[in-house]
Specification:
By secondary structure, this protein is α/β, with parallel strands linked by helices. It has a single domain, classed as Rossmann fold. Helix content is 38%, strand content 19%. The strands form 4 sheets. A 7-stranded parallel sheet has the order 3-2-1-4-5-8-12, sandwiched between helices. Strands 9-11-13 form a 3-stranded mixed sheet. The protein has a two-stranded antiparallel sheet with strand order 6-7. α1 links the parallel β1 and β2. The longest helix has 25 residues. The chain is globular and about 55 Å long. It binds sulfoquinovose-uridine-C1,5'-diphosphate. The site of sulfoquinovose-uridine-C1,5'-diphosphate has 21 residues, from α8 and β10. The site of sulfoquinovose-uridine-C1,5'-diphosphate (USQ) has 21 residues, from α8 and β10.
Length: 382
């Protein structure tokens, strides 16, 4: 298939590009380096410095003989995206091109506005480029489990049947995001739903939980092909941060009571999920929503696991609750369903002790790169 990946330089975009190209798909990636620029501006550089996107594509080509086309450009500019669509005629567009950091979106007005404008314009332009230039193209969009928040009832996969005063209807599951970033994803979903029901687009919206891990089959060949792995307070997510903290000898930063439960998945499973969604496209006029995670656990449970495994390897891992910089429930009900991707054939890589040990070993090999001043949270939800 001709696959266009928006946000191809990102933690998920780059491994997805390599994985699909390795399987023989024709892949083109676009990126505006927004994450690299914000990381530089906020002193949040990744653990492993990586070549730019074109260089990575060249390295991948020299090792695999598979080509990945690259455009460095801003898809929030419709003319740029339009030109790519006309030239490439994608059959699938995988849309990762969003500012993904909740803390960055809560820094102040400028960062909130930048996040809102980038994320909504990217989605709007993706929709219009499909409508104008490739109406049969399947949009696979990365949403987030954070769209649902932590309601006191079971979370369904995107939709909820409601009986009200004797009548029944099906609605988007109620959403209550906990950051401006997560709210932009809610708005994306509404935008997609409007265009799907009005113009018959085919869309899969993947509600993904926090992803962890460093390596995929393709990056194993050459460290320059690794994804950008963040452990800072802006782009680092809980698991990746705790792994680095364990190696650096910094007590694991549990925010508040640590009863926050999330649905996690291995980076390798993100690749599987996107591919499964791509291989069985949504129907025309369907907004298919799939909850994308493989297991749920609390922050306390995560910290305990990393501490146990780390100590078994001779690290001295401590855990320390620090005041929660976010406004979120720290002790709550959480029961999201996630059968859709399993039914499509997902074979989960769970977070076993062996998986944690392997990730710790990988981080240990980059121990000298760790800058502990990047770890403590700098952004509060004030
Ligand atoms: N947390 C800690 N200590 C830390 C970091 C995080 O206790 O050092 C807690 C947070 O308070 C939160 C939970 O861990 O309760 C998850 O936080 P996170 O930073 O791992 O993830 P989040 O900010 O929610 O966002 C990440 C990605 C985002 C994606 C989302 C999926 O950055 O792009 O959409 O995970 S989800 O969380 O399901 O919405």
């Amino acid at each position: 298939m001709r696959v266009l990946i928006l946000g191809g330089d990102g933690y998920l975009g780059w491994p997805t590009a390599m994985s699909l190209a390795a399987q023989g798909h024709e892949v083109h990636v676009v990126d505006n380096y927004m994450r690299r620029n914000i990381a530089q501006k906020t002193q949040s550089e990744a653990l492993i410095p990586l070549p730019n996107l074109q260089d990575r594509a060249n390295i991948f080509h020299s090792l695999s003989n598979k080509k990945i086309g690259v455009t460095i450009g801003d898809i929030a500019n419709y003319r740029i995206l339009s030109k790519i669509f006309v030239a490439f005629q994608p059959e699938v567009v995988i849309h990762y091109a969003e500012q993904p950091s909740a803390p960055y979106s809560m820094m102040g007005f400028d960062e909130a506005s930048e996040t809102l404008n980038n994320n909504l314009n990217a989605t709007m332009n993706c929709i219009w480029a499909v409508m104008e230039h490739a109406p049969d193209c399947h949009i696979v969009k990365l949403g987030t489990m954070g769209e649902y928040g932590t309601p006191n009832i079971d979370i369904e996969e995107g939709w909820l049947e409601i009986e009200h005063k004797g009548r029944k209807g099906k609605f988007l599951y109620p959403r209550a995001a906990g950051s401006l970033y997560h709210t932009t994803k809610v708005l994306d979903t509404d935008l997609l739903w409007f265009y799907v029901r009005t113009y018959g687009l085919r869309v899969t919206d993947l509600m993904q939980g926090p992803v962890y891990g460093l390596e995929t089959d393709e990056s194993e060949q050459d460290a320059r092909l690794l994804p950008n792995f963040h452990y800072d307070d802006i782009f680092g997510t809980a698991v990746n941060r705790f792994l680095v903290q364990a190696v650096a000898g910094v007590p694991l930063t549990v925010y508040g009571k640590g009863g926050q439960v999330r649905g996690y998945l291995n980076l390798r499973d993100t690749l599987q999920c996107v591919e499964l969604a791509m291989n069985s496209p949504a129907a025309k006029g369907e907004l298919r929503i799939l909850n994308q995670f493989t297991e749920t656990f609390s922050i306390n449970k995560l910290a305990d696991t990393i501490q146990r495994v780390g100590n078994g390897m001779g690290l001295e891992v401590q855990i320390k609750s620090i005041p929660n910089p976010r406004k979120e429930a720290e002790d709550h009900y959480y029961n999201p369903s996630h059968s859709g991707l399993m039914e499509l054939g997902l074979e989960p890589h769970y977070m076993t002790d062996d998986v944690v040990a392997t990730m710790l070993e990988q981080v240990i090999s980059y121990k000298d790169n760790i800058d502990v001043s990047k770890i403590m949270p700098r952004v509060g939800w004030k």
